[in-house]
Amino acid sequence: MNIQLDQFNILVAEDNPIHSLILENILRMQGYGVLLADSFDKAFSILSKDHVDLILMDVIMGDMSGFDIVKTIMETPEYQDIPVIFITSLDSTEDIIRGFDSGAVDYIRKPFEPQILLRRVRQQINLLYQRKFIETQKKSLEAAIASRDQIYAIISHDLRTPIASLKMILNILSLQEVHKDQESLRQMVYSGNDIAEQLFSLLDNLLKWTKSRLGMLSFVPQSVQFDQVIFGVVEVLRPTALLKDITIETCIESCITIYFDTDILKSVIRNLLINALKFSHKGSSVKILLYSEGSCAVMEVVDTGVGMDESIQKSIRESLPSGSRPGTANEQGSGLGLWIVKQFVQGKEGEFFFESVENQGSKFGLRIPKLDRKEL
């Protein structure tokens, strides 16, 4: 470990001028920077204006106890991380324990051996160096992570707009009537629409995730007609359902109003429905229910697909991305969908819940307070 000792300053708090001079010479010969204080006031004056890495403290300084001085230092936030080594002629167990209890990290008996003193000082300097190195590495890592997340957010945002436009075009094409002899063309359009929808969902999830981590995700609640948002998402995802011959059934109570961010609500519903379609079998159905339950609106997405084992359910309960699992038609995914749903719903005074039985299907739902008509 190559440490530049001249980068470290040691404060020697010693009122005996001979001992102070000896300590200064020993430390300077090794290359350390040395600051001298012969009183409590002088020591604090140096601490207030100079950078100090380590303190060598005499236990008795004039009428003051070094134990009390160290306690005062340890109670001062800007100084409490500076290690203190006592230099003392006191060697009783009680005095040694008192020294450690006051906040000192080590002690050296008088008369001291220079080599022992240097070894103990070097030990503390090594620890300081390692701590500074770790802090530097931590800051570099945090900066790298922040830069990575910023890049993710920028890329996701820049890709989201063109893919949203492509998705809209393909969705419109998929709703057009075609002749029977153009069935293959319709399937191609459906497939293109499904791919665009999956890409859009992935980018939308990634964008929301990174913005959430960076504290940049804005939540702008407003009065929302819950049923209208559901119907809008269902229409967009019908081509995806048709590709697997899956029927989307709805049992929707109308005129339920909630106070929520529309964009986030669409993302939540889209993720739940895409998840249900992904793990449903060809020719089956997915049900979407919306109903009132007291002062709350409850939405459920129910499928009879592959369900989830206990390990996957546990990861969702613990708010961890469950990882990518291929769907029943080998669809791929990021594993972020359900994690994002839970984070956004529970973080905004809502409740996320689910039930699942492996090989029988799953039910995912959310419970959000309704907006009282008096508040409209």
TrEMBL record:
<dbReference type="InterPro" id="IPR005467">
    <property type="entry name" value="His_kinase_dom"/>
</dbReference>
<keyword id="KW-0808">Transferase</keyword>
<dbReference type="Pfam" id="PF00072">
    <property type="entry name" value="Response_reg"/>
</dbReference>
<dbReference type="InterPro" id="IPR001789">
    <property type="entry name" value="Sig_transdc_resp-reg_receiver"/>
</dbReference>
<protein>
    <recommendedName>
        <fullName>histidine kinase</fullName>
        <ecNumber>2.7.13.3</ecNumber>
    </recommendedName>
</protein>
<dbReference type="InterPro" id="IPR036890">
    <property type="entry name" value="HATPase_C_sf"/>
</dbReference>
<dbReference type="Pfam" id="PF02518">
    <property type="entry name" value="HATPase_c"/>
</dbReference>
<dbReference type="InterPro" id="IPR004358">
    <property type="entry name" value="Sig_transdc_His_kin-like_C"/>
</dbReference>
<dbReference type="InterPro" id="IPR036097">
    <property type="entry name" value="HisK_dim/P_sf"/>
</dbReference>
<dbReference type="InterPro" id="IPR003594">
    <property type="entry name" value="HATPase_dom"/>
</dbReference>
<feature type="domain" description="Histidine kinase">
    <location>
        <begin position="154"/>
        <end position="372"/>
    </location>
</feature>
<keyword id="KW-0418">Kinase</keyword>
<dbReference type="InterPro" id="IPR003661">
    <property type="entry name" value="HisK_dim/P_dom"/>
</dbReference>
<keyword id="KW-0597">Phosphoprotein</keyword>
<dbReference type="GO" id="GO:0016301">
    <property type="term" value="F:kinase activity"/>
</dbReference>
<feature type="domain" description="Response regulatory">
    <location>
        <begin position="9"/>
        <end position="125"/>
    </location>
</feature>
<feature type="modified residue" description="4-aspartylphosphate">
    <location>
        <position position="58"/>
    </location>
</feature>
<dbReference type="Pfam" id="PF00512">
    <property type="entry name" value="HisKA"/>
</dbReference>
<dbReference type="InterPro" id="IPR011006">
    <property type="entry name" value="CheY-like_superfamily"/>
</dbReference>
